[in-house]
């Protein structure tokens, strides 16, 4: 089980605003933020649900290659809400909400590229 993961972004403040808006439908919010003085390197923001920051961004600068992160959604409507919120927050479409039967018959996901090109997905595995 993964406890948390972090990615570097080119514009920390812009990314923090993007993720706060895009992840809100998934019940994710900014849980904690640490400063450069506290960490000894770039500031970082931890997003998560239920008080547990499990998705982190830091201001170390853009990564050489984008990453893919999938966050579990409670239902298909939440996947749709994530997609809408992420697009409104400045994300770019990388796969509108829908069934991805090549994964399995109930795989319902949506994919959005964040400002640095990271592929952020919301996915629901439940039937309708």
From TrEMBL:
What Pfam families has UniProt attached to this entry? Glyoxalase (PF00903)
The record's listing under PROSITE patterns reads: VOC
| Database matches in Gene3D superfamilies | 2,3-Dihydroxybiphenyl 1,2-Dioxygenase, domain 1 (3.10.180.10)
InterPro entries this protein is in? Glyas_Bleomycin-R_OHBP_Dase, Glyas_Fos-R_dOase_dom, VOC_core
Q: In this protein, which residues make up the domain named VOC?
A: 1-125
Source superkingdom:
Bacteria
The cross-references to PANTHER family, in alphabetical order and at most eight, read: GLYOXALASE FAMILY PROTEIN (AFU_ORTHOLOGUE AFUA_5G14830)
What is this protein called in UniProt? VOC domain-containing protein
Task: Please report the organism this UniProt entry assigns to the protein.
Answer: Bradyrhizobium cosmicum
